Inverse folding.
């Protein structure tokens, strides 16, 4: 059953937006990278991850932008590989795969028997390591581990037929969206280095949490039809619809309201930024915050007209 629905408009009047001049080249390079490992999927061809990276890291050099774009593509490919292997409802099997992937991200080499996605990750790790410290990569691996754990939580829900409650879903969505690793990449793409306590505590942590909510909830709006087509319950619109016993139109409206409140909170925090004694740290932190804004606007701009979502009519909502 489908019902017509107009998706709510998401507006960020005070946030900056841009796109890299390398977007077309980066996109083609990413597709070729996946193809060279024999892992090209129809879904990836419909998912212009190079353009997503070009909107969310618009000031990056060509080389670091390519690494960011390839990471986003790897995330999409991992989803596709899990779907193709029917592991979306098998948390124990996912744990085995995820353990192998984390081992590779932390420095081990894949075996010839490992999935192509593992070899692709090893290549990405080696290239990324040229631009970051070992400490950064260790923190990055931890963030990725949380993302993968959230994936297994979703798999358990599917296996047991559970629609998570609103509070649990919101808490886990911060990790299932893989936003923290994507935010961390800004230190590479911006060529900056920040003490970890600045971005992982205080205002830095709060701004990331809020930005994560904004991006993930807006994604839930754009991706609702696609996810419901495949009977996936992990979407804030659907969770509100089921647990608050409200119709879909009201659920979309409520997500939009929640989203807008987060935008207001982000803007308010920008008026309360701390002052650092080091001019370099001050400048790098402001660039990091600008990067969060690019992620917010870039995700929206990329999602509008994205074939990954528009393979279904944007005005159709699947019940």
């Amino acid at each position: 059953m489908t019902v017509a629905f107009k998706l709510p408009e998401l507006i960020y009047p005070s946030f900056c937006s841009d796109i890299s001049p390398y977007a077309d080249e980066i996109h083609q390079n990413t597709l070729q990278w996946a193809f060279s490992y024999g892992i090209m999927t129809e879904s990836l061809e419909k998912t212009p991850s190079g353009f997503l990276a070009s909107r969310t890291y618009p000031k990056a050099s060509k080389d670091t932008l390519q690494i960011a774009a390839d990471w986003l593509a790897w995330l999409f490919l991992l989803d596709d590989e899990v779907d193709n292997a029917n592991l979306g409802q098998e948390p124990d099997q996912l744990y085995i795969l995820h353990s192998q992937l984390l081992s590779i991200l932390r420095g081990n080499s894949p075996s010839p028997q490992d999935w192509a996605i593992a070899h692709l990750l090893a290549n990405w790790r080696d290239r990324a390591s040229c631009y970051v410290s070992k400490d950064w990569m260790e923190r990055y691996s931890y963030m990725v581990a949380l993302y993968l754990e959230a994936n297994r939580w979703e798999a358990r829900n599917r296996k047991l037929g559970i629609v998570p409650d609103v509070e649990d879903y919101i808490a886990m969505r911060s990790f299932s969206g893989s936003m923290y690793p994507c935010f961390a990449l800004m230190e590479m793409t911006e060529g900056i280095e920040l003490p970890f306590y600045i971005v992982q505590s205080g205002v830095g942590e709060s701004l990331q949490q809020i930005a994560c909510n904004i991006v993930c909830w807006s994604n839930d709006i754009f991706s609702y039809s696609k996810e419901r087509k495949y009977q996936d319950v992990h979407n804030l619109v659907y969770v509100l619809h089921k647990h608050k016993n409200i119709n879909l139109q009201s659920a979309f409206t409520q997500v939009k309201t929640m989203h807008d409140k987060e935008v207001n909170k982000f803007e308010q925090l920008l008026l309360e930024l701390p002052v650092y004694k080091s001019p370099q740290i001050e400048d790098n932190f402001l660039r990091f915050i600008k990067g969060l804004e690019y992620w917010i606007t870039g995700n929206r701009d990329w999602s509008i007209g994205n074939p990954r979502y528009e393979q279904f009519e944007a005005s159709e909502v699947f019940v």
The longest strand covers residues 2-4. Residues 311-318 have pLDDT under 50 and may be disordered.
